[in-house]
Amino acid sequence: MARKALVKWSDCSHEKITTDGNYNNKYSYVYDDSDPNIAMSLWFRNSVDAADFQTTVLQLSFTDIFSWSANSNSHFVYDISDTDPDPKHYKAFQLVHSSFEWKYSELFFVYRDTDYRFDRVAVRLHFPQVYYTDYVSTHFDKLYKPPADERPRFSHCEKLFGNANVEFQDERTCMAFLSSLTGGHELVFSRRADFITTKQPSRFSKKKSNKGPAEVQLWQKGDNIRLVSRWDERVDEKWMSRLVRRGDLDDKKGSNRANLSSADFDRGRKIDMANLVARDSKEKLEGVKRGPITIAFETVRGEISK
Q1: I need a labelling partner for 196 at 20 to 30 A (CA). Which of 177, 212, 290, 295 fits?
Q2: How far apart are CA 276 and CA 219, in angstroms?
Q3: pTM of whole model > 0.90?
Q4: Coil, strand or helix: which one is 118?
Q5: Tell me: the pLDDT tens digits for 134-185?
Q6: Which of 168, 36, 191 is nearest to 102 (CA)?
């Protein structure tokens, strides 16, 4: 590695002009990470010091709980808590990227109740809603420009939400990453199911669910096993979860179906990653239901094992 480092960053002085809908301009001075307006060239005594500086700039200053490498870049997961008298705890993941000769990092925050989609073909996780930090200046949405001798400066931080994709080189690392986002659970099984039904079979009912395919996962913590599944986007309450006890599974050798006996299960639009319970039901009460569960896999090899 070279002894020279060129560092670029953005302050909060990028001018942005909008209108108030009444032919009046509104002036904001914003932070723009895609257009850094400050640069500094540094020379170090040796390449080791230069590498240490790069690591310090691109990573957080406290210990990660999980890390992995992809395309020569390192990525990290952290336990985070806020500073309120009753602090809330979160997870955060940091992605370090390389673009030509540049390196930069992104930091995203994941709340306890979240949503993610697993793209098995690309070995990619998509988070539809994660949070990141925006830096707000002292001059925002004003009908006038700031005086020449009062350059806009940083005022405070605000929380914004967006989406994020996390790519992996193998499925094992992806499962370990998901495990690091939980409260001590380990993801031990993850497969695509052809369909899932949650009703007692009847000669008058369809044998196949109209909800479509779903991702089926088994999570273990101590002696407890939890079943978690997620349908695709067309299903509103796409998450389902339940506890799997010994003797709950009834399957037949050579069958592509796994049958779980009747028990309580939860439905919701998000998954509680601390407890692996479906949350955010559209019903006023908790989304607890009861019934048997039948999971049909695309192949016999995809079946849940006892």
Answers
A1: 177
A2: 8
A3: no
A4: strand
A5: 999 999 999 999 998 999 999 999 999 999 999 999 999 999 999 999 999 9
A6: 36
